[in-house]
């Protein structure tokens, strides 16, 4: 090892590359360009005197030395995050940044109006919305508050049922005029719009597939907005949250049973329960958003 001094920023960079697999994906997470991230990685490897990653056409793979460093780096990260939570979790000041993660449609349709009112009432709080389907890690402080359709399985996460989402089956009138009755041969001849393969286990996907086994997929996407747009333009039948579908030029279809409701869970790390801005935010959105939407 040529230099025993390794800064925390270097460890943070190493972890980002190890998790993202490429410089182009890791750089933006740290506010770095790809060339800058590459230069800093080379400097880190020179400092420790070993190669940490094998460069391949598929991305960066950890070497044996990199695997050893990863174990220590993750422990350092855990201690650093725990210290930050312990310090900031006791903060009484309501000012600061609050990172909120949820899906794009839920942020826009459900949280949007409540967030606007919250920022007016709390002008010293900056709310950062991370709108994506990936389940962000509360332990790594990728987000402070998470709204998601899957409950949390860790004892150190404070969670509660936030709201129930109602769903319905929709189609464009132009689609119905062209395709005819829905019950013929279990949906044979019809097209369905649904979630992508990664979300096949979602309750509404299973319901749609069971209700119309003869139908074929026309559009699959993890974006409800993409599904809704495809449905409006006649691509097929779609199960959508009613808060989305009822506001669009679509026909809500009665096929004898409603798609299952889904629960949205709110969660945050227990070390942040003393954070004033988090408490204010949770209280505000729980009061502003109905128990069923």
Give your account of this protein's structure:
The structure is a single chain. The protein is of the alpha/beta class. It folds into 3 domains: 8-88, Arc Repressor Mutant, subunit A (Orthogonal Bundle), CATH 1.10.10.10; 96-162 and 263-288, Periplasmic binding protein-like II (D-Maltodextrin-Binding Protein, domain 2), CATH 3.40.190.10; 167-259, D-Maltodextrin-Binding Protein, domain 2, CATH 3.40.190.10. The chain has helices at 8-20, 23-30, 34-48, 64-88, 104-121, 173-179, 203-211, 224-232, 242-245, 276-288; strands spanning 53-56, 59-62, 96-102, 125-131, 145-148, 157-165, 167-171, 191-194, 216-220, 237-241, 251-253, 262-269. The strands form 3 sheets. The protein has a 5-stranded mixed sheet, covered by helices on one side. A 5-stranded mixed sheet has the order 9-8-10-7-11, sandwiched between helices. Strands 1-2 form a two-stranded antiparallel ribbon. Strand 1 and strand 2 form a beta hairpin. The radius of gyration is 23 Å and the shape is globular. The model has no long low-confidence stretch (mean pLDDT 86).
Write the layout of secondary structure elements.
Elements: H1 8-20, H2 23-30, H3 34-48, E1 53-56, E2 59-62, H4 64-88, E3 96-102, H5 104-121, E4 125-131, E5 145-148, E6 157-165, E7 167-171, H6 173-179, E8 191-194, H7 203-211, E9 216-220, H8 224-232, E10 237-241, H9 242-245, E11 251-253, E12 262-269, H10 276-288
Parallel strand pairs: 3-4, 3-5, 8-9, 8-10
Antiparallel strand pairs: 1-2, 5-12, 6-12, 7-10, 7-11
